[in-house]
Amino acid sequence: MAIGGSFVSYEKSTFILFQSLLKPNAYIVTQGPTEETVTDFWRMVWQEKASCIVMLTKTFDFIRVMCVQYWPASRELEEIYGGIHIHVVNEEELANFHIRTFRLYKNDENGSLLEERTILQFHYTQWHSHSCPFTNALLEFRRRVRAVVGHVIRSNEAGPMVVHCKYFCGFTQSFISSDGGGRSGVYLSVDANMELAEEEDKFDVFGYLKKLRQSRKGLVDNIDQYKFIYDTLEEHVLCGNSWFPVSELSQRLKQKSQKNPITKINDYQREYMLICKQTPRFTIGDCAGGHRGDNRKKNRDVLIVPPDNFRPYLTSFQGNSFTDYINAVFVDQQFPAFWPEGRASKKYGPVFTIDHISHNHYPSIRTWVFRINKKIVSLTELMAGVKAPPKTVQLFQLTCWPMGHKVPTSTNSLVELMNMVERWRQRTEYGPVCVVSPDGRSRCGIYCAANACIEQVVQHGEVDVFQAVRTVRRHRPQLTENLTEYKYCYDVVLHYVLHYLQKDLEEMKAKKQNQN
């Protein structure tokens, strides 16, 4: 079997054609475009009639430029490269990747439309340098790619899939790349082997990668990336497809309640056992910040400490007695409220003052709007010209979840709370939501997982509670800590679908029509 190996060069760039395990010339692997090669990149996409673009790097990583943005910055703009007009038709932002729809067209000498095409770009944004992404996130990314362009690829209606990473991964025949080129090799290996498994029920990781590297040495260039390929394929085998269409929700929930006559457990139990088995285990070293002597008093429970790689770091300089550490379990209902209980302003430490703006109380839900004022007290910030404009936040409190109850007494109130939070976020800058519970683990998992599921229902018409719970447990394994909470996530999604979905879809449709 011959795997690509033919280098096709433009004036300033090079790409390589590779075949999958079933199809010749299935992929084009290239470097991320630079300022000098972006025109050649689009010439290649047009000439080879690419089926889609898979981008595996950010444009910026801290202060480093990883890849130039080779598409217009907004839908109102248009760019032209080598006579090819590029226009962004649509952009969908998801947790780990973006999906952009580009309209490409050429005009003749008189300015009349000569030819136009539509191509999708799948941009994975959570693959950090010198690391591997989460296996389930990459599988979901690959599923989205295949769901959109899979039938086109299989029918040979379009050309190869363009896969690229960083521009400095050095696509010359003599250069051994950094992990930039390795990412492309990882994706090709996962995609090609999953395609082989679907057709012939087998994998050939070693054989395929060996042939890839005969043409490009930097494709999968370390043991961690090689192991990640196997881990991803293993997860695919163990977990399978856990999503299903919203239209099948009621039927699926009935099936999940039925016990398997052989194993004597139902699907809820089977799924939750699998989640527990695959939940990461963090060591004390992973959570070193929370175990430092000056931070221990901030932990309500020594077993619930966030890993350093995923916790928020406090950057406000308040003196030597303050650290950058905070744990999500800092608040407990046994202590006074952490917000001003009256209308008067309240000061918290030497830096922050909280102003009460308004409040509203509904059945089972209370809300407050506060303004956070930050005082610049450090000489460092003053000399640097740091400004601290006030920030407005809204606090939502669910009151129908008594202590000792594993789930709320009103599912409708929890769903309404989520809707209220979403409406507030639409009015503001869509920053992250801080979710607080008595111990930082119970209750939070239900809110985060169910909210993610509802977003998936609205955007894609799909339900996947299994992967939603797995995702929220990546950084805090204690979330969704029992089977009752896991099953309740399904109940929340069902309630939303039955009582809210149609109304929300109609509102979204009306909003889009007004924008157009």
Can I get a quick summary?
With 516 residues, the protein is an alpha+beta fold.
Task: Write structural notes for this entry.
- Pfam families: Y_phosphatase.
- Residues 139-227, 415-487 form the Tyrosine specific protein phosphatases domain.
- InterPro entries: Prot-tyrosine_phosphatase-like, Protein-Tyr_Phosphatase, PTP_cat, Tyr_Pase_cat, Tyr_Pase_dom.
- Residues 1-236, 268-496 form the Tyrosine-protein phosphatase domain.
- The protein is α+β, with helices and mostly antiparallel strands and 516 residues long.
- The chain has a domain at 7-239: Protein tyrosine phosphatase superfamily (Protein-Tyrosine Phosphatase, Chain A, Alpha-Beta Complex).
- It contains 14 helices and 17 strands.
- It has helices spanning 38-47, 135-154, 179-200, 205-215, 223-239, 249-256, 267-278, 288-291, 379-384, 411-427, 444-460, 465-472, 483-499, 501-515; strands at residues 7-9, 14-18, 27-30, 52-55, 60-61, 64-65, 78-81, 84-93, 97-107, 113-124, 161-164, 244-245, 346-348, 352-362, 365-374, 391-398, 462-463.
- It has a 9-stranded mixed sheet with strand order 1-2-3-11-4-10-9-8-7.
Which spans of ≥5 residues are poorly predicted at pLDDT below 50? Answer: 1-13, 168-179, 325-335
CATH topology-level fold name of the domain at 7-239 = Protein-Tyrosine Phosphatase, Chain A
Q: What is the average per-residue confidence, as pLDDT, rounded to a whole number? A: 83
CATH domain class name of the domain at 7-239: Alpha Beta
Spatial extent as radius of gyration: 26 Å
Q: From the coordinates shown, what is the CATH architecture of the domain at 7-239? A: Alpha-Beta Complex
Which range does the strand content fall in? 15-25%
Q: Give me the count of strands.
A: 17
Structural class: alpha+beta
Largest sheet, in brief, is: 9 strands, mixed
The order of strands across the largest sheet is 1-2-3-11-4-10-9-8-7
